[in-house]
Design goal:
By secondary structure, this protein is an all-alpha fold. The protein has a domain of 53 residues: Arc Repressor Mutant, subunit A (Orthogonal Bundle), CATH 1.10.10. The protein is built from seven helices and no strands. Helix 2 packs across helix 3 and helix 3 packs parallel to helix 5. The longest helix has 36 residues.
Length: 171
């Protein structure tokens, strides 16, 4: 993704805010989407030039994320407006927070362990639900063994019949 300097962002936003040009035509000239121009304009109107100095890839606390979501519920504001209000450079993290919160609740915002998982092997004891499925698997395994043995015997009989001459004795 192309990174724009503070000066370039300010130039684009000021051209948009003057009202002589629309966001799509400005976007084509600078290679930026109209949505991004709207987002920058909101940031600029809320925070001034300092809005462009907000760091990308910031880490937000679970409490802050919850505060943002509560604000969204109270105001019914757009993601762009919410991002500008809280000084978040892009509305995309807010969209992701909403989806995570809808799926997992507040647990989605708890700190997660970083890095690789431990190499310790922990044996999982089967639960009552697993025991039923374990019995089903054992029954299916037994059925497949019997089927395999039947096919082996059938194959052996076919090979014996092919080897032996057509001399069948009648009794």
């Amino acid at each position: 993704m192309w990174k724009f300097s503070v000066k370039e962002k300010l130039e684009i936003v000021l051209r948009y805010l003057e009202g002589n040009e629309v966001a799509p035509s400005i976007g084509r000239k600078y290679g930026v989407s109209k949505t991004q121009i709207y987002s920058w304009a909101k940031l600029y109107s809320e925070w001034g030039i300092e809005g462009f100095r907000i760091k990308d890839y910031a880490s937000y606390s679970p409490e802050f994320k919850l505060e943002v979501l509560e604000y969204r519920l109270k105001t019914k504001a757009s993601y762009v407006d919410i991002a500008a209000h809280f000084g978040i450079p892009s509305p995309s993290p807010i969209k992701r927070w909403v989806k995570e919160f809808e799926r997992k609740g507040f647990d989605a915002f708890k700190a997660k362990k970083k890095g690789r998982t431990s190499m310790n092997k922990e044996t999982k004891k089967p639960t009552k639900q697993d025991e039923g499925s374990l019995e089903k698997l054992q029954a299916e395994n037994e059925r497949l063994r019997m089927e395999n043995a039947y096919l082996k015997k059938l194959n052996a009989l076919v090979q014996n019949k092919e080897k032996s001459p057509n001399k069948t004795k009648r009794k």
